[in-house]
Amino acid sequence: MSDINIQIIFCYQIKEEQKGVDDIMIYLDYAANTPVDKGVLDTFYDISLTYIGNPNSPHTLGDKARERMDQSTKQIANLLGAKENEVIYTSGASESNNMAIKGIASSYKRYGKHIITTYLEHASVTGPITALQNDGYEVDYISLSDNGQVDLNHLMELIREDTILVSVCYIDSEVGTIQQIEEISKIAHAKSHCFLHVDATQAVCKIPVSFEKIDLMTFSGHKFYGLNGCGILLKKESIMLEPLIHGGLSTTSFRSGTPMLALAAATEKALTIGVENLTVRYEYVNELNKELREALKAYPNIKINTPIQGSPFILNISIKGVNTNQLQNELNKRDIYVATKSACCAPNTVSRPVYAMTKDRKLALSTLRISLSHLTTMDEIDFFLDNFKQVLKEIGDNHGKLY
Question: Tens digit of pLDDT for each residue in 167-188?
């Protein structure tokens, strides 16, 4: 039996064992990772056993694998308003972001070396942009409104004839602000050689997303109940892109490596389930978010950073005078799992999005991110709120005014 089959069976065993566990575990960190949907895991298992050929192999088994790969690619493209030849499979959103940003910078530097982005971006966006800045590219950051949305007037002021890339997130991973992508697209495309990259990692299967007005869009299946290890880069077919990985072919010439059929099929399944259930899940989570907001408003030292019109799947707060790393650790001891920032951020640093929105370093150092799911129950919200209050009291008498 292969290692991968053993891992899959082990996952099933863990799931079965957990059914009998009496301990209460409250998971409120869905923006970092989501549990795999059983239908997705079944798809991965079935495809792994059924298709043993390399999709690029020139024989019958390879042809069958390629046909199934093409089926997944077509479905993914259709669900997001893209073409089949615009889908590039990667190892995750981080690779997708690096490929999009570095690829555009390398392929279009003859037209300019100016990049525009925001302080809301994930580390896998700021990282390659900083690397390019160190390599001589000029980077400007768009101002934000109080609700975290891009200042469109400032974007119009910043954009130039030598701007080759505007890179923004659809929904930022810490605060949950939803950007005006269509308006940003109009401004970016007013320049002939400027492309719009959108990190849609927190948006896909959360809100309606279309690739139509976007040049490059990135996301990862593990954010919508798929498996870790499979990301997507959607790239308009007319755009040239310098690959990050050279040597051999995958499903396109832009990314080398053996095509990952089982992961692609599993991601297709997760995306299909997510899109089909998007509205009902959104409405349910929105109600949970309202209840949580209302309860947290009772604390005078808590500032809710997520705008009311932001994603209901994320609720970011700042707790004045409280070390939220300590708060997180104490909640962790009670099997309640939340975050202070994005999982990819360095510990004990300010929240860049919160600081960009508030210009208040203390608020940006005391953030807590609660991220919700259609799997979250109201009982779990109530349990969290009860323990949240208790832990705040235990942290110190000087925070007594919070209660």
Answer: 999 999 999 999 999 999 999 9
The answer to whether the beta carbons of residues 140 and 114 sit under 8 Å apart is yes
How deeply is 237 buried, as exposed, middle or buried, from its count of CB atoms within 10 A (0-12, 13-18, 19+)? exposed
Task: Please give the distance of CA 345 from its chain centroid, rounded to a whole number.
Answer: 13
Q: Are 192 and 173 in contact, with CB atoms under 8 Å apart?
A: no
- Which pair of structure tokens corresponds to residue 308? 């009311």
Other Cβ atoms within 10 Å of 300 Cβ, number: 10
Tokens read off for 226: 């798929």
Q: Give the whole-angstrom CA distance, residue 306 versus residue 167.
A: 21
Domains and CATH numbers, the chain: 9-28+278-402 (3.90.1150.10), 40-275 (3.40.640.10)
Residues 31, 313: Cα–Cα separation, whole Å: 8
Residue 160, helix vs strand vs coil: coil
Per-residue model confidence as pLDDT tens digits over 309-359: 999 999 999 999 999 999 999 999 999 999 996 545 555 678 999 999 999
327/322 Cα distance (integer angstroms): 8
Active site residues: 344
Q: Can you give the pTM of this predicted structure?
A: 0.90
Where is 319: in which H helix or E strand?
Answer: strand 314-319
